[in-house]
Amino acid sequence: MEQISNIEPMGTVQKYIAAFNGGDAKGMVACFAAEGSILDGMAPHVWTGDSAARDRYRDVLIEGEDNGASGYTLELGETRRNDLNGNFAYLVISAKLTFELKGNPRPHRACSHSSFKKRATLI
Prior knowledge:
28% of the residues lie in helices and 45% in strands. By secondary structure, the protein is an alpha+beta fold. It is globular. The model is unreliable at 1-5 and 115-123 (pLDDT under 50). The strands form 3 sheets. It has a 3-stranded antiparallel sheet. Strands 1-7 form a two-stranded antiparallel ribbon. The chain has a two-stranded antiparallel ribbon with strand order 2-3. It has helices at residues 9-21, 25-30, 52-67, and strands at 2-3, 37-39, 46-48, 69-85, 88-101, 104-117, 121-122. The protein has a single domain, classed as Roll (Nuclear Transport Factor 2, Chain: A).
């Protein structure tokens, strides 16, 4: 079990992105705090709790299949905000999501807002 007490939040974000790019739902869940939440423009818009990362990824794949999207790759850009306050962190990072829509490459720029609460262990 990896301790995250000394890991910078950006390192956790990078691990999460690597897991996303690799289609590794378990890896995404391992980076996510049990009390965390995800807010997204995609319905149902909010996912909470220890299954939030896994459930959102499942819903991304379902919506993608319904719309002919696949081959997702997320690339982090400029870190616009990286605030640490005790056991809490707030990050704003520009990002580029690339995917195929019905077989054609489609880049999409996004700005990612992530809040993290550090916990004793990363499981």
